[in-house]
Write a structure and sequence with these properties.
Layout (H helix, E strand, L loop, with lengths): L18 H11 L3 E4 L6 H11 L4 E5 L6 H5 E6 L2 E6 L1 H8 L2 E5 L7 H10 L4 E4 L4 E4 L5 E6 L12 H4 L3 E4 L5 H12 L3 H17 L10 H12 L4 H13 L3 H14 L1
Parallel strand pairs: 1-8, 1-9, 2-5, 5-8
Antiparallel strand pairs: 3-4, 6-7
Helix pairs in contact: 7-8, 7-9, 8-11, 9-10, 10-11
Bound molecules: adenosine-5'-diphosphate.
Adenosine-5'-diphosphate binds next to helix 2, helix 7 and helix 9.
Length: 264
């Protein structure tokens, strides 16, 4: 661990497998890393934890369907009548030898892929067409991307030619013991009261893909537990943190309420 980073600044992350060792190995070799898994299962927290623990600067970009290569690389901006080049987060990360985390990378526009290819093979180069610069990434630079293989339609899957440039770690929801510890720690609710929430999550996740697009995330369990820790009734907390976020369908909502009644 890097000496300049104090423990208090490292966000809590409870490892599930060998992901920490893999991240360190990828970083040491300058290899790009892809984190695959459902939303709210700890991918972002993992990257924040590893970057802080290794004393590395982290640029996080939440990708969306309007995000273009220029948003990552940079653009000329008008300042007081003159145009001035302003680096985007990816360019800054390359220049500084930092970690760049592209969250939900498949959401971004297609031109982003073109930028990532030369950065993720042995050229490790970022081409800035607008300025004519060609930056070679220093050894410290690391590219991390995440994507959720579950909910994207087929058109939005990562192409094999892109996927095969990354080392990959598959994330799933933590096992019940780990998830109980995580939710208790994050929410302040006792493990005894978190345990039924985690059991409920297991049942709900078994339904995902059928009536539900996605199972309940660890993030939503933390929300529910936080509301309960603040004094809210189980019923109200689960309505706001589990049922409403998961579905807009009255029938499915009722099925979830019935499921909750079997656990509580
Ligand atoms: P993702 O990036 O996969 O959508 P996040 O990293 O934002 O999800 O995780 C959502 C929340 O779940 C975090 O804020 C944290 O409270 C919790 N969490 C999930 N897994 C873990 C874990 N292994 N250790 C610590 N917290 C976790």
């Amino acid at each position: 661990m890097n000496a300049i980073v104090r423990d208090a600044t490292v966000p809590f992350y409870k490892p599930v497998g060998n992901e920490c060792a893999l991240f360190e190995a990828a970083s040491a070799k300058g290899l790009p890393l892809l984190l695959k898994g459902p939303t709210g299962c700890g991918k972002t927290r993992f990257v924040e934890h590893m970057a802080a623990r290794m004393g590395r600067k982290l640029y996080t970009v939440a990708c969306h369907d309007d995000l273009s290569a220029a948003d990552l690389i940079g653009r000329y901006l008008l300042k007081g009548g003159a145009t001035e080049w302003v680096d985007g987060p990816l360019t800054r990360a390359v220049r500084e030898g930092a970690i760049c985390y592209l969250d939900e990378v498949v959401e971004a526009r297609k031109d982003v892929t073109v930028v990532l290819h030369p950065l993720t093979d042995n050229r490790r180069t970022l081409m800035i067409d607008r300025t004519g610069e060609e930056l070679v990434a220093p050894p410290g630079f690391m590219l991390v991307a995440s994507y959720n293989p579950g909910y994207q339609n087929i058109l939005k899957r990562l192409k094999p030619s892109t996927r095969q440039r990354f080392l990959s770690i598959g994330f799933t929801f933590p096992d019940p013991v780990t998830e109980t510890a995580v939710v208790a720690r994050e929410s302040g609710l006792s493990e005894a009261r978190v345990a039924p929430l985690v059991r409920l999550a297991g049942h709900v996740r078994a339904l995902s893909g059928m009536d539900l697009e996605e199972g309940v995330s660890t993030r939503l369990l933390v929300y529910a537990a936080s509301l309960m820790a603040g004094g809210m009734s189980v019923e109200q907390a689960l309505e706001a943190a589990v049922i409403e976020p998961l579905t807009d369908e009255p029938d499915v909502a009722q099925a979830l309420r019935d499921l909750i009644a079997t656990v509580y």
